[in-house]
Design brief:
four-stranded mixed sheet; 60s Ribosomal Protein L30, Chain: A; 2 domains
């Protein structure tokens, strides 16, 4: 589905710069807390030094958790943290982690099988804004999605801004990074999964079609929508009704609307 290119002032960084962000750091208290809870390896932490030796309770809890894990803790000043930050909102803590592990398509399918649920997958066609991707991971976690698929090129990866925007959801939703999105869609179809593309000209209104079975929802690029080569391999397309003058939605908003309709249908069936 074609989406707004100028949805958020925080997306001021260029696409090229955003794709070069480090994927081995996490910033902010909630993302670090979720990384600790999930058992993610954390090698080093930079903490904003307290002038009086006392820390806010939420930060102190994180420091204690990191110490219990044997993490190297470095106290530093706000200026250094500001210079290190990718999110511009580090909340007094930045941690160095093991690189986020990507999974295979088979891993995602196995997750659904182990849960005895029909596969429910997001396929993202060149999403380039970190805040969009982070929001989509939050939606995926909330809706019980078994995994997210992103392309290796021309798309943002799981960097610190994505982790921050996801509020830690990237710790719980597996992500596959693939070299060829079209081949991946064909692989999903070979495994009995229906592939639904979101598109303004889609032939089906989102709440008028059965989304109960094995399903992959394809969400397009913020400015261009789903690429023609990917769209032609979708089994069907879904549209959202528009009443206003602007005929597009933010990628994560569109994703959320369709995903929650799928969740509504799936929970109603149980």
């Amino acid at each position: 589905m074609r989406t707004d290119q100028l949805h958020d002032a925080k997306a001021a960084k260029s696409v090229d710069a955003s794709l070069e962000e480090r994927e081995d750091r996490i910033e902010g208290r909630n993302p670090v807390r979720e990384a600790l809870k999930s058992g993610r390896q954390i090698d080093k932490a930079w903490i904003q030094k307290s002038n009086d030796g006392h820390y806010e309770h939420s930060l102190y809890e994180l420091i204690c958790g990191l110490r219990e894990r044997g993490t190297v803790i470095v106290e530093t000043d706000k200026q250094r943290l500001d210079a290190m930050s990718q999110t511009f909102n580090h909340q007094g803590i930045i941690v160095q982690t093991a690189m986020q592990e990507y999974v295979s398509i088979d891993d995602i399918l196995s997750r659904a099988q182990n849960a005895k649920e029909p596969p429910f997958i997001f396929v993202l066609d060149k999403i380039q804004d970190a805040y969009n991707l982070g929001s989509i991971f939050r939606i995926a976690d909330a809706c019980g999605v078994h995994g997210v698929v992103i392309p290796e090129r021309r798309a943002v990866g799981l960097n610190a801004m994505v982790a921050k925007a996801s509020v830690g959801a990237i710790e719980y939703v597996p992500c596959a990074k693939v070299t060829n999105l079209t081949q991946t869609i064909l692989q999903l179809k070979e495994n009995g999964i229906w592939v639904a593309g979101t598109d303004m000209a889609g032939e089906n209104i989102y709440d008028g079609i059965d989304l109960n079975g094995p399903l992959a929802i394809v969400i397009g690029n913020e400015g261009e929508g789903i690429s023609p080569g990917v769209l032609k391999h979708c089994d069907f397309t879904i549209s959202l009704p528009m009443m206003g003058q602007i005929n597009s939605l933010n990628a994560s908003v569109a994703c959320g609307i369709v995903a929650y309709e799928a969740l509504r249908q799936r929970t109603a069936r149980k």
